[in-house]
User: Fold this.
Amino acid sequence: MSIPLTVLGIETTCDETAASLVERRAEGRGKILSNVVLSQTNEHAAFGGVVPEIAARAHVEVLDQIIARALADAGRRMSDIDAVAAAAGPGLIGGVLVGLTTAKAISLVTRKPLIAVNHLEAHALTARLTDGVPFPYCLFLASGGHTQILAVRGVGDYVLLGNTLDDAIGEAFDKTAKLLGLGYPGGPAVEREAARGNAKRFELPRPMYGRAEADFSLSGLKTALRLEAEKVAPLNDQDVADLCAAFQGAVVDVIKDRIRSGLRLFREQFGSPTALVAAGGVAANLEIRKTLHRRALEGGTVLVVPPVNLCTDNGAMIAWAGAERLALGLLDDLEFAARPRWPLEEVVGRKKVSSESAFA
Ligand code: KG4
Ligand code: ZN
Assistant:
């Protein structure tokens, strides 16, 4: 196998069809050669959220072209890659099957190894691609489907320190947007409205605030917001902005407090983290970034947040996770089944097969 390693990554777990070529050099640093992302936002906008069947069909229609574009942008041919990686879960099963099956077909035809990547692991390892962050680090993973604080101790070595008991933060942003008629996706819309709102006009709870464990709970906040909105309905533009500001302010306070607990738990169990790393679409939010930055400083560590286009779903993170696994000889065979549910802690202790046995 050539050094540097070149991996094709495919992402189809939700509403982005994405492919990317990433290079991993001998010393472990990464370089993105191409990164093509096609968002299906328009296809789902009318429904106020992602419709799984529409998503799967849209992935089928464009994935071939997206992969061809990723190769062309990188100036490489399929024969130049060392492995093909696809997100094999967790996610919407129809979409996952499209990406994983395509990767298997490419693996079979080119006889290059297949790597079935956990989508959350890809988010978790992105900071190593962008900033070369060494293990162990404390990860705040906040997306549409997940809100977790984890100790990342190595590739395939994740310890859950905190989790949401109900909604994910991204989901809470999306539901708030829907309630206030701001459309989908909700996160950016709520952030925009919050910027011109008064966060003090409405009082909202801070669920789990002050608790020793590092768990989150968002559903009470969502209900409290709905009750406040009903009190002042019909809503004018200023009401909407003030409600968004109150919601975002409450989320920021909760994150600040929960990360404090998470960092403390990390230190108690694993010593000092090399960094506090943020990942997932919610890390695109500027107020949340500022809060994390302050929290990291107070906790005596640094904050690392990948650029926004690598925080939201993309193919480069899948290719990079594949490259990290390839470098360790962690390959998968063509029998690997897509997993709609696949918690990051379960990625531990995967079976190791040689590239020969993958094609036996
Ligand atoms: O990681 P991601 O792209 O996809 C998943 O794997 O879920 O995250 C998408 C989530 C959505 O819930 C979206 O509303 C949220 O991230 N998000 C934001 C912002 N941008 C995206 N939440 C808050 N503020 C933002 N600026
Ligand atoms: Zn994601």
